[in-house]
Each structure stands twice: as structure tokens, then as C-alpha cells.
Amino acid sequence: MEITYKTDVVPSPEQVIEVYDSAKLPRPTNDAERIGKIYQNSNLIVSAWDGEKLVGVSRSITDWAWSCYLADLAIHADYQKLGIGKKLIDITKEQVGEQTTILLLSVPTAMEYYPKLGFTKEDRGFTILRTR
Fold first, then answer.
1. 3-state DSSP call for residue 89?
2. pLDDT for the residue 41
3. 54 burial class (0-12, 13-18, 19+ CB within 10 angstroms)?
4. pLDDT at 104 over 90
5. Is the whole model's pTM more than 0.90, yes or no?
6. Which of 128, 132, 110 is nearest to 119 (CA)?
7. Cα-atom radius of gyration of the chain, to the nearest Å?
8. Number of H helices, E strands in the chain
């Protein structure tokens, strides 16, 4: 299997939903319009493809000079533990450059994953949670 990585393609909401559901990423996958809006308003999307099939995606919002919020990282369940997530993060790092910090909020099940990729756990963040 040869995985191809792209930064010039925005996957369709249906493709993203399939990956999110397979990966059990808690996102509003019952609302394709909302998923589409999420992707339309993100300015760095790195995707992983097995032929025509989307198998992984990294979605970020960045200013390209100071900070990059890595909002989503999802790998289809059939493709996990193959290094795809690491590669998506590596490409994200290459795209934003050395002057940009990458930040993320992890789902509880991935808290042990990110330190293995070089992320440092931070205890100084704050959130205002969405109401729906």
C-alpha cells in the first residue's frame, strides 16, 4: 500500500465523516453542512490517501508566523498504527515553518499519543466550551 499525502485538496464532508466515524473522533458527523463549513474555514489541511480513499486528515488554523492550532487529526481505523498520523503532523510542521508553535487540544484517548510525537503537555490553557 502506498499512501499519498496532499496539501492542495480539501476532502468532501462525506469523506471526512467516514474517517472521523471510523476513528471515533467526537465531531458533529451527523451534520455534513457543519463539517463542510469547518473545512472551508481552515487554512491548512493535510490529507492522506490510499488511491482515491481518504485514510487520514490533519486540519489546522494558522497565521503562518506565530501559532498553528491543530484542530483535528484523524486516521481511519483500518490504517492506524502505520505512521500516518506522525507523517500528517510532520507535513503540518513543514508547512508552518520553524517560527510557528503548534497547539492542540487532545481527546482523552490520545493523551499518551502526542508526547510520542514531540508534543509537550501544557497545563496553562483555558477554554470556553461550545453550547451545542
1. helix
2. 96
3. buried
4. yes
5. yes
6. 110
7. 14
8. 3, 5
